[in-house]
Every structure is written in C-alpha cells, then in structure tokens.
Amino acid sequence: YMMIAPTIQQTRCKAWIQRHLPTDGSVSLSDVTSMYTAICVMGPFARVFLSELTDTDLNPKSFPFFTFKELDVGLANGIRAMNITHTGELGYVLYIPNEFALHVYTQLIETGQKYGIRHAGYYAMRALRVERFFAFWGQDLDTTTTPLECGRSWRVKLDMDFVGRDALMKQRGEGVKRMYVQLILQDHDHEIDLWPWGSEPIYRNGKYVGATTTTGYGFTFKKQVCLGFVQNFDDRGIAQAVTPEYVTTGQYEVDVAGIRYPAKVNLHSPNLPTRYPDKERLAYRATRDSVVSIRGN
C-alpha cells in the first residue's frame, strides 16, 4: 500500500499509524516522500492532454475518479497516478520517481503548449477550490473534524471495522453539532470593500453561529466565497444538533471588518457552468450524500 498524506500532516500521519501498527511486526511503515516528485495536471483538457504521453487508457470507465493506476509518461515508467483533483476540474496527481521527474516535467510542458498549459500557484488553486467547496486540511479541517460534519461520509465505509467507527456511529445517531457550509457574499464590491481573509463571524438570522475558515474570490460566481462551520446554539449557548433543514432555512450574514454582508448558503458542492462539459466533473463534487459513479465515455 501507498498512502498519501497532506503535505503539512506528514509527520502527524506517520506517528498516528505507527501507534496503531500490530505489535507482532507483521506490518512495517516506511516514509518514501523523498523518493517521489508530485506534479498535478488539472483542467478540462487534462485527460486528452495526458493521453498523448501514455498508452494507459484514461477513460473514466477504466480509470474512474478517486482511483489509482501505475503508468508510463513520456517513456518514464513507475509513475503512480491518482485520478483526483484539488480544483474541481478534471485532474491527475502524478507521483514520479525522482530520477524521472525533470524528464516528465519537460514532456508535460512541451506537449501542453497546444493546450495552453501554464503553471498555477497556491492562490490560483484556492480561488478554484473555494468555489467548488473543496476543503483543505489544516485550514478547514483538523483532527477534531469528522466526515459527518464536513459532508464527506460518502468516503467512509461504515460497514467495515476501523479506529473511530463507534464514535462516528454514535455521532450519526445523535446528530452533528456543526456543519460545513459554503457562503457566497452578496452586496459586496470586491473593488472597494475589504476582503474576508478567514475567521470572520457568521450570523444566522442575526445570531452568531460560527466562523469562516477559508475565503477567496470566486471568478465564476464573480463574488467573494467563504467556507466555514455553522452551529446551533440554544439560549444558554450550548450547541445543539445541526440538520440540513436548519442550515438551508436561515438568513446568513458574514461580518467582514465590522460590516455584515448578506450571504447565500450552500450545503453541497454547486454545479458550476463550464465551456467544456464532461460527465466526469460530476464525480468531483466534494460534498454530497452518496458516491457518484460515472460510467461510459
């Protein structure tokens, strides 16, 4: 098995796994981070573009979302590819043995010229992910966040035994005390109004219910987009269960530097318009009630 950890969580993940390894030595753990270079190839032409460099069938039927294949790219072999995206567009993450990294990178850049390939940095990716409701570890999620709270229970096989399953089943029965939401600011002029930067108070029907975690300008919405958690406090300030109905029936505001802006709330990943429609993009919705399966061309 090869496990991929968020970049800033490498040490924490390794320590957690080591604590839970069998004591009989039947399972070992090695950190191979320094052996691979990771390159993300993302965008509406990602599949067609990468198909020019590999003989592996990248059709969604044989290589669906959230799966792994080992493939050759530009005659370099042993490349571990994941059909996954950090932006909501079609995309692949390539884990390349270091000795092939420069060669593969050069091949990607040269072949990608006719597709308008370009480098993208952190802020570009953040602008894309906040629109598509993609959470980042360390900013939106941490060790106290459960899949039920952030709409990602579809990634958990509750019919199997694992560390923490009993706690999740209990939480599912009792209800979550907070819920991850997307808020799109209204009546906010990005040219003259102050931008949100995270930790802004969220109000529901005039009452404080939480704070933002990540914010960014959404170029599709042409509005500021905030991600954050919403709670349900009673008159004593004690958190009560939060339901989808509670989230979707409220009137929301986000306080940016002392000014409250009305906001539209989304509980699930929105369907964004695109000039390049592809059925597989439906599988990239990060927040949902169940798994979306895409078959065929």
TrEMBL record:
One of its GO terms (cellular component) is mitochondrion. Residues 180-265 form the Aminomethyltransferase C-terminal domain. InterPro entries: GcvT/YgfZ/DmdA, GcvT/YgfZ_C, GcvT_C, GCVT_N, TrmE/GcvT-like. This is Glycine cleavage T-protein C-terminal barrel domain-containing protein. The lineage of its organism: Eukaryota, Metazoa, Ecdysozoa, Arthropoda, Hexapoda. It comes from the Eukaryota. SUPFAM superfamilies: Aminomethyltransferase beta-barrel domain, Folate-binding domain. Residues 1-159 form the GCVT N-terminal domain. Signal peptide: none annotated. PANTHER family: AMINOMETHYLTRANSFERASE, PYRUVATE DEHYDROGENASE PHOSPHATASE REGULATORY SUBUNIT, MITOCHONDRIAL-LIKE. It holds the Pfam family GCV_T.
